[in-house]
């Protein structure tokens, strides 16, 4: 059993983000060569330099959009030339949009006078954006980068899901449904690739305070937690937000041969949120 990740090549999409930059660093600390793919070219180039300096292992920043197959194919050529064939893929690019977020948790009679904050005020443009980024943005990079793994009959793909994928969270209809689709696709692809030596799993992080959800969880002016933020903490048995570092053990487990017989699972890393009924 090969549990050593050293020398392997990992592609990480959304690598400039809070969660995936931490993933890139923990992989580099294990000696993994990292290809940091993001639309924010400047940020990933800078991160790659930092990683090379700190961990003394190859890292490159590559500009590409997970919604543009051609840009991903170009990225793959660069990655193959500079780092070698791809062993691991982490589909991390994802997120929500305020356009597909309702302003109220539950509709009540008084909302009938102004529907803007209810389901009826949500924009299809927002649904499209969120489904594209989270769902299509998982499928397209997999189509491009998994081929190397299929060729050598070895590899591991980790998708980044969310708590909202198991039971939807109020307000974020599109984001919840899109991450549920990611879970479903994770299982589908795990079965599809199961005889080809390529495993497909997902991590469902619990609540971390990041740029993507800050507008929902803290008051912009005062910095105090919103009512929603308080609810989250009260429903997380560990009574706190998680940190990106706390996802890393699960990531390393899913990539390495320690999980050689594990495929098609979605692992919650959530301080107990998904286990807790609130009572
Ligand atoms: P983030 O907003 O910090 O980072 C997202 C990154 O994706 C950014 O660097 C952005 O430039 C990049 N990106 C956006 N569109 C892209 C595209 N078309 N192509 C390539 N890159 C693109 O996000 P984060 O909070 O670190 O979240 C990372 C993943 O974790 C997402 O899939 C998110 O849905 C998921 N997640 C986050 C939380 C949380 O609490 N933050 C919880 C559960 C799941």
Automatic annotation (TrEMBL):
Keywords: Dioxygenase, Oxidoreductase
Pfam families assigned to the protein according to its UniProt record, in alphabetical order: adh_short_C2 (PF13561)
Source organism superkingdom: Bacteria
One function term, GO molecular function aspect: oxidoreductase activity, acting on the CH-OH group of donors, NAD or NADP as acceptor
Biological-process GO terms, alphabetical: carbohydrate metabolic process
Record-stated family: Belongs to the short-chain dehydrogenases/reductases (SDR) family.
Annotated protein name in UniProt: Dioxygenase
Organism the protein comes from: Labilibaculum antarcticum
């Amino acid at each position: 059993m090969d549990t050593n990740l050293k020398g392997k090549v990992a592609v990480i999409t959304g690598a400039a983000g809070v969660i995936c930059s931490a993933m890139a660093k923990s992989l580099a600390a294990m000696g993994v060569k990292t290809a940091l793919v993001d639309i924010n070219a400047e940020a990933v180039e800078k991160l790659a330099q930092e990683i090379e300096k700190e961990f003394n292992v190859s890292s490159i920043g590559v500009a590409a959009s997970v919604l543009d197959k051609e840009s991903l194919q170009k990225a793959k050529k660069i990655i193959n030339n500079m780092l070698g064939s791809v062993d691991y893929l982490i589909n991390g690019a994802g997120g929500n949009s305020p356009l597909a977020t309702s302003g109220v948790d539950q509709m009540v009679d008084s909302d009938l006078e102004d529907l803007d904050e209810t389901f009826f005020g949500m924009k299809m443009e927002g649904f499209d954006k969120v489904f594209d980024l989270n769902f299509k943005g998982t499928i397209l990079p997999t189509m491009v980068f998994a081929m190397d793994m299929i060729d050598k009959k070895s590899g591991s793909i980790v998708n980044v899901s969310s708590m909202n994928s198991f039971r939807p969270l109020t307000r974020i209809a599109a984001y919840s449904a899109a991450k549920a689709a990611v879970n479903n696709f994770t299982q589908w692809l795990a079965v599809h690739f199961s005889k080809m030596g390529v495993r497909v799993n997902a991590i469902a992080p619990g609540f971390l305070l990041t740029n993507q959800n800050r507008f929902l969880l803290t008051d912009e002016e005062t910095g105090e937690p919103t009512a929603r933020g308080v609810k989250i903490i009260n429903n997380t048995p560990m009574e706190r937000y998680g940190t990106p570092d706390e996802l890393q053990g699960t990531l390393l487990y899913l990539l390495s041969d320690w999980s050689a017989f594990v495929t098609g699972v979605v692992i919650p890393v959530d301080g107990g949120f998904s286990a807790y009924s609130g009572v």
